[in-house]
Specification:
- By secondary structure, this protein is mostly helical.
- It has one domain.
- Helix content is about 70%, strand content about 0%.
- It has 11 helices and no strands.
- It has helices at about 1-45, 50-75, 85-100, 110-125, 135-150, 150-155, 165-175, 180-190, 200-205, 210-220, 225-230.
- The longest helix is centred in the first third of the chain and has 43 residues, at about 1-45.
- The termini are far apart.
- The relative contact order is 0.13.
């Protein structure tokens, strides 16, 4: 039995090392592919297309903010840690983060950015298949993938008391999610779901977007939002 425990521990450790190696490779790949596609985007720029380029980057960043908000809202609102496919990983992570918000500061750069980098690498590989030759369309896609890939890192910085100086400046300028803006989510847990730039949080919360979405889904499916939280209270 003792030998079995030792070998089991080695298997877990080896699995952990393999996952970290995969995450590191994904971060390198996503960075390289992002630079490659940026160079291709620059090639599409004509003297008259700078406005389209900047508009595309802005729209893509907004889209990334919305996507991260929808994922965050979905994992906070529906299902539980037993939900098939995503319960033991994605939902569990978000619920644990509510219980211990500062625990994510214990994770290093590879752990925080590895999984999003995997998704970003796949998205960057698919990007040429879209066949977009417009600066606007390419900029939207590039910005969406890039901002989405960095969402976990932005989120972690928003939990730091004193992030790096450059990051503090970006947070104060409103370009990325700040600690002050993100604190509302942890105070109420029913808003402020967007964790990329956070640009959409004010609008979506003020218009009741999340509650309308919840009522619509509840009406169609009969499911109860945050039922898991009620069962535990």
């Amino acid at each position: 039995m003792h030998d079995l425990v030792i070998r089991s521990g080695k298997n877990v450790a080896q699995s952990g090392h393999r996952v970290r190696a995969l995450y590191l490779a994904a971060i390198i790949a996503a960075s390289a592919l992002g630079i490659l596609h940026l160079s291709q985007l620059i090639d599409l720029i004509a003297p008259t297309s700078w406005i389209a380029l900047l508009a595309g980057l802005w729209v893509g960043a907004l889209a990334a903010d919305l996507v991260t908000g929808l994922v965050h809202w979905g994992c906070d609102t529906w299902g539980d840690e037993e939900t098939p496919w995503i319960g033991s990983s994605l939902i569990r992570w978000f619920r644990a983060h509510h219980r211990e918000p500062q625990a994510m500061l214990e994770h290093d750069w590879i752990e925080v950015n590895g999984a999003p980098a995997l998704a970003a690498s796949a998205a960057f590989l698919v990007l040429p298949c879209l066949g977009s030759q417009s600066a606007f369309g390419y900029a939207v896609a590039w910005s969406l993938i890039g901002a989405g890939a960095l969402a976990n890192q932005f989120h972690q910085w928003a939990h730091m008391d004193s992030p790096p100086l450059l990051i503090r400046k970006l947070q104060r300028s409103g370009l990325i999610l700040s600690r002050v803006r993100h604190a509302r989510h942890h105070a109420l847990h029913t808003g402020g779901y967007c964790i990329s730039t956070g640009w959409l949080n004010g609008l979506l919360d003020a218009t009741g977007f999340w509650r309308v979405l919840e009522r619509s889904i509840a009406f169609v499916t009969g499911a109860e939002p945050r039922a898991d939280a009620r069962n535990r209270s």
